[in-house]
Amino acid sequence: MKRIIGALLFAALVLGFAAPGYAQDRTYRIEVLQIVALAPFQDAYEGFVKELEKNGLVQGKNLTINRTIVDFDLEKAGLWQKVGLLRRIKSEASRIADARPDLAFTIGTPATKYAKDKIISSGIPLVFTGVAFPQSAGCRSLTEGAPGLTGSTVYMNVKDALSIVKLAFPSAGTIGVVHSDDETAMQHTEEIKREAPGMGFSVTAKQVGKNDHLSPAAQELIDKGAEVFIVPLDAYYGMRNNEAWNELDEITRTRKIPAVSFVYHKSPGAILYLGSDYGLVGGLAGQHAAAILKDGSKPESLPILRQEDLNIMADVEKIKKLNIDIPLEILQLAKPVQ
Question: What's the mean pLDDT in 44-71?
Answer without folding.
Answer: 96
